[in-house]
Specification:
Elements: H1 2-21, E1 44-45, E2 50-57, E3 63-69, E4 74-79, H2 88-103, E5 112-117, H3 122-129, H4 144-149, E6 170-173, E7 176-179, H5 188-200, E8 204-210, E9 214-217, H6 226-239, E10 243-244, H7 256-262, E11 267-272, H8 280-293
Parallel strand pairs: 4-5, 4-8, 8-11, 9-10
Antiparallel strand pairs: 1-2, 2-3, 3-5, 6-7, 9-11
Helix pairs in contact: 6-8
Length: 296
């Protein structure tokens, strides 16, 4: 009996100790909110007003990531690297824009959200520079055959021939025949872009390519929309690139930007002048012109 009392005394002493250790000394009961929701979401908050969303995977399983800046209701979408390592300067331009927006968040009007997809074809970029994301220009090889191979995804499909606007299984690039895939959106990278666009419904979009030096309006078998023509003119006038209604160097089938037009999203292709310069000042001026246009 004596031993039992000793054990009970020890248990009581330990119980009181634990009570005070967990904050019971202020007589406030510890409660659990049964209605609380998880803070985990499909987006991962980063520094400041920036978030990133993995919108899909490449053929080889690499992340395709969209980065978001600002919190406005009007979303402007900017896309680089649809042709991977072949057009690596469009990737550097996109990353340059991301760095600029992070350093200068006040440049974004309050009613605008900016989304940047710097690399839509990470496998093609990795083939050329050895990484699927950020890289330095010193990592870029000079061999033309290596650069050209980086244009395609890991299924050897030209992603800007894989969208549902005048799609053909065999497309054209310069004088070459290229694969448009087995069907529109047969490729995971195109599917990822499609899914993001359909879910977010951006107000307008810019896709960077190289190299011809111009701003090209989009359309898919119809007249160029009034708003597409307006943003073509705004970007061109601010940047100094010539504005063009059509890309007529060779036939375009399954084009990503023309598909955006089919989805009633004002969209332009901005072709940098060379394959090696990001032409930052020109493009920043064009970007700011779009900010100004959609700031109200």
């Amino acid at each position: 009996m004596k031993n039992t009392l000793i054990v009970l005394g020890i248990i009581i002493i330990i119980g009181f100790g634990l009570y005070f250790m967990i904050g019971g000394s202020d007589n406030t009961p510890v409660t659990i909110d049964q209605n609380a929701t998880s803070t985990v979401s499909s987006t991962t908050p980063l520094v400041g007003n920036k978030e990133e969303t993995v919108i899909g995977k490449s053929v080889q399983g690499r992340d395709i990531t969209a980065y978001h800046y600002g919190e406005g209701s009007k979303e402007l979408l900017f896309v680089g690297g649809i042709h991977g390592g072949y057009e690596w300067n469009t990737v550097l331009l996109a990353y340059n824009l991301m760095d600029y927006l992070k350093a200068n968040p006040d440049v974004i009007p309050k009613n605008i959200k900016v989304t940047v997809i710097p690399v839509l074809n990470p496998d093609g970029l990795n083939l050329v520079v050895g990484v699927p994301g950020r890289f330095t220009q010193t990592a870029v090889p000079t061999a033309k055959d290596v650069l050209a191979a980086g244009r395609f995804n890991a299924n050897n499909v030209d992603l800007s021939r894989n969208f549902d606007c005048d799609w053909q299984a065999k497309g054209v690039w310069q004088t070459k025949t290229v694969s448009g895939g087995k069907a529109p959106f047969s490729e995971p990278e195109a599917q990822a872009f499609k899914g993001y666009v359909e879910s977010s419904k951006p107000t307008a979009a810019v896709v960077w390519y190289s190299a011809a030096g111009g701003v090209y309006a989009s359309n898919c078998g119809t007249d160029i929309s009034v708003e597409t023509r307006a943003i073509t003119s705004a970007y061109a006038q601010a940047s100094g690139y010539p504005a063009q209604d059509d890309f007529d160097f060779y036939a375009l089938t399954g084009d990503a930007v023309n598909w955006l037009a089919k989805e009633n999203i004002p969209a332009i292709s901005v072709l940098l002048t060379t394959h090696s310069d990001i032409e930052w000042d020109k493009n920043l001026a064009g970007i700011k012109a779009l900010f100004s246009r959609y700031s109200n």
